[in-house]
Amino acid sequence: MGTIEISDHSTAHGGRLRVIAIARPDRRNAVDGPTAQALYDAFVAFDRDESCDVAILTGAANAQGMGAFCAGADLKAFAGGGENGNKVEEGGTGTLAPMGVSRLQLTKPVIAAIEGHAVAGGMELALWCDLRVMASDAVMGIFCRRFGVPLIDMGTIRLPRLIGQSRAMDLILTGRPVEAEEALAIGLANRLAAPGKALEAALELAGTIAQFPQQCMRNDRRSAIEQWGLGNDDAILNETRLGMATLDSGESKAGAARFTAGTGRHGRFATD
């Protein structure tokens, strides 16, 4: 079966974080069919686990300590076909994708911790995540352009939505490398970290998100995602419906009581 590593981390505020790492460093964490299935199963399990708040997707380092997020689909397995090749199937939201998870719509956030290369399908995995923390020496790019391998893990959809049509076309048509500073400038990366520190920075970011009231955060996240497929009036109705569900949960009232008692004054983000 596919090779992934899963570990859980508790925050000082009681939130639990899950790290899911692609562990095929000999293939620069390229994804074959069994690994795609393992990633899919791991993230479905995360989403169903009520004790987990935020997940981090990353890639394992090799024996020399060199990291790679993901080099995309395992083209050696793909070229060979058979059971180890990534299956290319039609399917909508929630179905198994060639890279495993790219068609999943989770109810909780995922952060990519990127070292080394996040290219081709690996870049599509990074785009699937809500946020991307990128080492300052890491690289993204549609490197599969050179080999006639298409973007079929929603790269042609998510990339224009994330950075705009013009910039997305530049990257899609040329397949050129995008280094960390440019990635941050165009909105492809959300945070930069020192080399070798992407996971550490992603854990810190995840811990911050995990300490907030979770239903409100998840419903606002859901509205921001679902509005892409809705007209303006329906998007307003959906936002209102999700917002009312948060208000009816009592979470907002409890937060207002904390504010009245002095929490969060002068813009402080501490929740205690």
Fold blueprint:
Blueprint lengths: L3 E7 L5 E7 L10 H16 L5 E6 L15 H6 L29 E5 L2 E3 L1 H8 L2 E5 L3 E3 L13 H9 L1 H10 L3 E2 H6 L5 E3 L4 H13 L3 H13 L5 H18 L1 H10 L12
Number of strands: 9
Please tell me how large the radius of gyration is: 19 Å
Q: Strands across the major sheet, in which order?
A: 1-2-3-4-6-9
Structural class: alpha/beta
Largest sheet: 6 strands, mixed
Please count the helical segments: 10
How much helix is in the residues? 40-55%
- The mean pLDDT is 91
Through-space gap between termini: 44 Å
Strand content: 15-25%
Uncertain regions: pLDDT < 50 for 5+ in a row? none
Tell me, what's the shape? globular
Element-by-element helix/strand order: EEHEHEEHEEHHEHEHHHH
Write a structural description.
The protein is α/β, with parallel strands linked by helices and 272 residues long. Helix content is 40%, strand content 15%. It has a 6-stranded mixed beta sheet with strand order 1-2-3-4-6-9, sandwiched between helices. The mean pLDDT is 91.
